[in-house]
Amino acid sequence: MKIYWIKAQAPRRVLALIKHLGIEAQCIELDLMGGGLKTPAYTALNPNRKVPTLVDGESVLWESSAIMAYLCIKQGSDMWPAHEPAEQVEVLRWLSWNDQHWASAVAPFYFEHVVKATFHIGEPDQAEMTAAIPALEKFAAVLNQHLEGREFVACNRLTIADFQLASMACEWRHSQMPFEDYPNVVRWLDGLMRLPAWADPWPATAAEKAGALA
Ligand SMILES: N[C@@H](CCC(=O)N[C@@H](CS)C(=O)NCC(=O)O)C(=O)O
């Protein structure tokens, strides 16, 4: 099994799941800035030219939530409730909420701090983040209320919904996401960080491997 990745939030979900479930996979890092996502060979696997992409024998899959569900089914993990329709609906609700609302609310902060620093594409723009605060507060309030008395987003246990929602929000302190007034969100994010696979999901990068050989 191969997973194509770069050091970014959507691959983070899949890499964390692989590590958490102890799945054997060849993790292939692509060179974003060097055009690694735009080669004909990679475009044939993922016409979106995005990561992550999973290749498992004849199966090729993109979209991190679908990849996570595939891996859980293959591994027999209830982090995707394959055999419980009501639980599937619950997880699906939060995956959809993330993709329609939460991701775009947290993304400006994550982009300004994490993406720009990772790929050396400039300094954080404070005005962009200030403009994004009202949308973030609107959806942080929804999540905070939902997490009252709950440790996880769905099904009273760790599911792929937690990894989906936390992939950018986990950088909240570093990214100036104003979560101070949303204590249940902070508690949930801090709890996930106690999972070793979530705290450090990354395989060695090409730069790290080169440094180790030098
Ligand atoms: N909805 C997709 C998002 C994929 C995506 O946007 N991946 C980003 C990294 S987080 C990417 O490949 N960016 C590179 C680019 O747009 O050139 C998923 O969950 O897999």
Walk me through the structure:
- The protein is α+β, with helices and mostly antiparallel strands.
- The chain folds into two domains: 2-79, 3-Layer(aba) Sandwich (Glutaredoxin), CATH 3.40.30; 85-198, Glutathione S-transferase Yfyf (Class Pi), Chain A, domain 2 (Up-down Bundle).
- 55% of the residues lie in helices and 7% in strands.
- The chain contains nine helices and four strands, in the order βαβαββααααααα.
- The chain has a four-stranded mixed sheet, with helices on one face.
- Strand 1, helix 1 (9-21) and strand 2 (26-29) form a beta-alpha-beta unit.
- Helix 1 runs parallel beside helix 3 (64-75).
- The chain is globular, with a radius of gyration of 17 Å.
- The two termini are 29 Å apart.
- Bound molecules: glutathione.
- Residues 8-10, 32, 37, 50-52, 63-64 line the site of glutathione (GSH).
- Keywords: Transferase.
- Pfam families: GST_C, GST_N_2.
- It comes from Dyella japonica DSM 16301.
Helix content: 55-70%
User: What is the CATH architecture assignment of the largest domain?
Assistant: Up-down Bundle
**Strand portion:** 5-15%
Q: What string gives the helices and strands in order?
A: EHEHEEHHHHHHH
- Strand adjacency order, main sheet: 2-1-3-4
Mean pLDDT: 96
Cofactors and ligands: glutathione
Class based on secondary structure composition and strand pairing:
alpha+beta
Oligomer: single chain
The level-1 CATH class of the largest domain? Mainly Alpha
Q: In the CATH scheme, what's the topology name of the largest domain?
A: Glutathione S-transferase Yfyf (Class Pi), Chain A, domain 2
